[in-house]
Amino acid sequence: MSAPEDISDQLETAAVLRLLELSRHLAAPDNLQTLLQRVIDTAREVLHADRATVFLYDDKTRELFTYVAHGVKGLRFSIDKGIAGECARTRAIVNVPDCYADPRFNPQFDRDTGYRTRCLITVPLMGLEDELVGVLQLLNSNKESFDVGDERMSEALAGQAAVAIQRARLMEDRLEKLKLQRDLALARQIQMNVLPRELPKVEGYDLAGFSQPAEETGGDIYDILTCREDDNPPIMMLMADATGHGVGPAISVTQVRAMMRVAVRTNASLDDLLLHINRQVCDDLDGSRFVTAFFGVLDPVNHRVTYHSAGQGPLLHYHATQRRCEWLDASTLPLGIMADMPIDAVQPFDLERGDALVLLTDGFYEYQNEAGQQLGKDRIGAVVDRCRDEDAQSLLQALLTEVRSFANGAKQLDDLTAVIVKRRA
User: Fold this and answer.
1) Which residues are 138's β-sheet partners?
2) Is the peptide bond before 234 cis (omega within 30 degrees of 0)?
3) Rounded-to-integer distance, Cα 23 and Cα 130, Å
4) Which of 58, 266, 318, 332 is buried most deeply by CB count within 10 Å?
5) Largest CA distance in the chain
6) Mean pLDDT for each 10-residue chunk of the chain (425 residues)?
7) Distance (Å, whole) CA 340 – CA 349
8) How far apart are CA 258 and CA 150, in angstroms?
9) pTM score > 0.70 for this model?
């Protein structure tokens, strides 16, 4: 018959072997949930406990929360509370041999569940660079309480588990980031695909359009389409800019573009188009967001532009014969500000030979160089005047060249979108 010391040595050897087996499993690229389940199962087995729980640490909120556990779900609490919180704060093992005799113990969980906690041990999970990853807590040893040997064993287990948890969380963050990048790339592809692939051919006119988001997706959009299927029909123009840039604003301006196209197909007047789109945007956006938009119709027979500009400005009408830039302001409020927006009569203007209508979002005007200076209207007007004899596409390229030259390597902070209508001389 084996002596008690031999039995103890055999049990300790078995525990060490179990820890070594856990080390091998922890090296595998498991997801976080699988890894934590393996940790608490091994901890319960090695330390002969009834239950085990890993509380992960959220350093932003200074809270501990359960991810996997035996017998509990969905706990989250401040590290200023409870025995687990004390373990996290002090980063030291807390071994409680008699829970109901310890004033730090909160018996509420036992009362809620009918479970009775006799003893517990809580171990900090310290990762690389002394980072607190969480705490491991075990309840009810099959002995009277957890002893010094259990403390050593749990500390060894916690050291291995903490590093593995760090690695698993980094891997999940990496996978989430890659997924987000794929989603943003898809959103950008969808957004860019709704831009006109080919602009209408208009007798006596050159047209150009451009849009370049500051991020994967942007809050700008433009559109140019014919209003009817006949010879030399009117041309509908849109340029819209939602507050901010990213997926949310991209959805907003794409919605505006879709509603405008429906309005054109139903032969809605420019006033009705603006009113209905604005009301829908008011319904869809909260009070802190809005969309500026230019809606204009070019009559290529009478060479007249009729428009509404909802918060979009300045608008540049270049008069070729006078070599003069006329800057037009917005004609009403941005979309999404007021459901019953005021619509005043806007004076249409005529495009004489050589004239140009240049619509640019504020990403052009407010583009900053490294010194913090903005490109501004004067530089844009000078480029338009210098290219007065060029076609619309050449003028657009000249404007982009001016932006790049002025920026001198400064990062693009806002979306760049342009619509240029040039009447041939």
Assistant:
1) 52, 121
2) no
3) 20
4) 318
5) 114
6) 45 52 55 82 89 92 84 82 94 96 90 91 91 93 92 87 82 73 67 80 94 78 88 91 75 88 92 94 85 95 95 95 95 92 91 97 93 94 96 96 93 91 94
7) 26
8) 67
9) no
